[in-house]
Amino acid sequence: MNGHILAKVPILGKFVDERFLEHRRRSTSLAGLACLLATGVLFECRYFADHIWNWDLFALIVIFALVKFSTMAWHRLTD
Length: 79
Known about the structure:
Blueprint: H1 2-8, H2 10-15, H3 18-50, H4 55-78
Helix pairs in contact: 3-4
């Protein structure tokens, strides 16, 4: 699919190659996992320190898991 984008916008082909797109994919994935880890740590700190369940932080963890596993399943089934 990335080749189709580069074919439609020829100026991007000069600046964007497959390595750039792969590095962007990896860095985005790593950033998402780092945010998940930070959210989990913050959720646990608030629970253990203040004995408060932060349902908004818990919801972010659940949303991340749902999106991650659903996209994994989608790519597995359609590939």
